[in-house]
Amino acid sequence: MKDKIEGNRYKWKHLGITEKFNVAFEGIFETIRTENHMKFHCFCTIIICILSLFMDIGKYEALAVIISISLTWVAELFNTAIESCVDMITTQYHPLAKKAKDIAAGGVLVTAINALFVAYIVFEKKIVINVKQVFMLFKNSYQHTVFTIFVLIIIVVICIKSIVKKGTALRGGFPSGHSALAASIVTLITSLTNNPKIFVLSIILAVLVVHSRIEGKIHTFFETIVGCFLGWAITYLILVLVRM
C-alpha cells in the first residue's frame, strides 16, 4: 500500500503542466456532476455574469463579485473533498466524522452569505424598474461584453462536458471549447468592422483552429461544429441584447 502511495506521488510530481490542469479541472467536473449545490453555484455564477454585463458595475464592484464567487466555489470544493476523505476513512457514524462534515458545510454557508451580501450591495441600486433605463444600462456596459461572452462560453462548455462526461476540460470532449471561442471571435470581429478582408482572415483563422482539432484527433467533426454553433449563438445573443 505504501509503495502504491509513493508511486502516485511520483506520478503527480512528474505530470506536465497541461496534465496537472486537466486533473484540477476534472476535480471541478466531478464536483459539478455529483453535488447538487455545485450545480446551483454554476447557475448562480451564470446569472451574476449576465447581471454584471447589463448593470454596468465598476471595476472594484466587479472585483468584489469575482472574489465572492471564487470563495464560494473554493469552499464547496473543499467541503466535497473533506466529505470524500471522511467517507473513505469510515462508512459508519462517528461524532468526529459528523463534526468534520458540519464544519466544512459551515464554511460553505459563511461564503454563501458573504456572496449574498456582496450581490445585494453591488446590484441593489443598479436594478432599475424603468424599462428605458434598463436598456440604457445594456448599451453603456458594452466595454465588459467581450470578457463576459468568453466567460459564459467557458462556463457553458464546462457544464456540458461535466454532464456528457467525455474528455477533459482542456482536451477533447463534447463540445469543442476551442471551436466555440474561435466562432465567438469571428462573430465579434464581424460586429466591430465592415471590412470584408478582416472578416475573411478571421474566418480562415477559425477554420484553421477547427481543422487542427480534427486533424489532431482531439475532437470529431461533429464536436467542432457544435462548438462553433454554441460560440456563435451565445455571442450573437449577448450582442443583440446589448444593442437593443
UniProtKB/TrEMBL annotation:
<dbReference type="InterPro" id="IPR000326">
    <property type="entry name" value="PAP2/HPO"/>
</dbReference>
<keyword id="KW-0472">Membrane</keyword>
<feature type="transmembrane region" description="Helical">
    <location>
        <begin position="198"/>
        <end position="214"/>
    </location>
</feature>
<feature type="binding site">
    <location>
        <position position="83"/>
    </location>
    <ligand>
        <name>a divalent metal cation</name>
    </ligand>
</feature>
<feature type="transmembrane region" description="Helical">
    <location>
        <begin position="103"/>
        <end position="122"/>
    </location>
</feature>
<feature type="transmembrane region" description="Helical">
    <location>
        <begin position="40"/>
        <end position="57"/>
    </location>
</feature>
<feature type="transmembrane region" description="Helical">
    <location>
        <begin position="142"/>
        <end position="160"/>
    </location>
</feature>
<protein>
    <submittedName>
        <fullName>Diacylglycerol kinase</fullName>
    </submittedName>
</protein>
<dbReference type="InterPro" id="IPR036945">
    <property type="entry name" value="DAGK_sf"/>
</dbReference>
<keyword id="KW-0594">Phospholipid biosynthesis</keyword>
<comment type="similarity">
    <text>Belongs to the bacterial diacylglycerol kinase family.</text>
</comment>
<feature type="binding site">
    <location>
        <position position="83"/>
    </location>
    <ligand>
        <name>ATP</name>
    </ligand>
</feature>
<dbReference type="GO" id="GO:0016301">
    <property type="term" value="F:kinase activity"/>
</dbReference>
<feature type="binding site">
    <location>
        <position position="76"/>
    </location>
    <ligand>
        <name>substrate</name>
    </ligand>
</feature>
<dbReference type="GO" id="GO:0005886">
    <property type="term" value="C:plasma membrane"/>
</dbReference>
<dbReference type="Pfam" id="PF01569">
    <property type="entry name" value="PAP2"/>
</dbReference>
<feature type="binding site">
    <location>
        <begin position="101"/>
        <end position="102"/>
    </location>
    <ligand>
        <name>ATP</name>
    </ligand>
</feature>
<keyword id="KW-0418">Kinase</keyword>
<feature type="active site" description="Proton acceptor">
    <location>
        <position position="76"/>
    </location>
</feature>
<feature type="transmembrane region" description="Helical">
    <location>
        <begin position="63"/>
        <end position="82"/>
    </location>
</feature>
<keyword id="KW-0460">Magnesium</keyword>
<feature type="transmembrane region" description="Helical">
    <location>
        <begin position="221"/>
        <end position="242"/>
    </location>
</feature>
<keyword id="KW-0547">Nucleotide-binding</keyword>
<keyword id="KW-0443">Lipid metabolism</keyword>
<dbReference type="GO" id="GO:0005524">
    <property type="term" value="F:ATP binding"/>
</dbReference>
<feature type="binding site">
    <location>
        <position position="35"/>
    </location>
    <ligand>
        <name>a divalent metal cation</name>
    </ligand>
</feature>
<dbReference type="Pfam" id="PF01219">
    <property type="entry name" value="DAGK_prokar"/>
</dbReference>
<keyword id="KW-1003">Cell membrane</keyword>
<keyword id="KW-0479">Metal-binding</keyword>
<keyword id="KW-1133">Transmembrane helix</keyword>
<dbReference type="GO" id="GO:0046872">
    <property type="term" value="F:metal ion binding"/>
</dbReference>
<keyword id="KW-0067">ATP-binding</keyword>
<dbReference type="InterPro" id="IPR000829">
    <property type="entry name" value="DAGK"/>
</dbReference>
<feature type="binding site">
    <location>
        <position position="35"/>
    </location>
    <ligand>
        <name>ATP</name>
    </ligand>
</feature>
<dbReference type="GO" id="GO:0008654">
    <property type="term" value="P:phospholipid biosynthetic process"/>
</dbReference>
<keyword id="KW-0808">Transferase</keyword>
<dbReference type="InterPro" id="IPR036938">
    <property type="entry name" value="PAP2/HPO_sf"/>
</dbReference>
<feature type="domain" description="Phosphatidic acid phosphatase type 2/haloperoxidase">
    <location>
        <begin position="171"/>
        <end position="242"/>
    </location>
</feature>
<keyword id="KW-0444">Lipid biosynthesis</keyword>
<keyword id="KW-0812">Transmembrane</keyword>
<keyword id="KW-1208">Phospholipid metabolism</keyword>
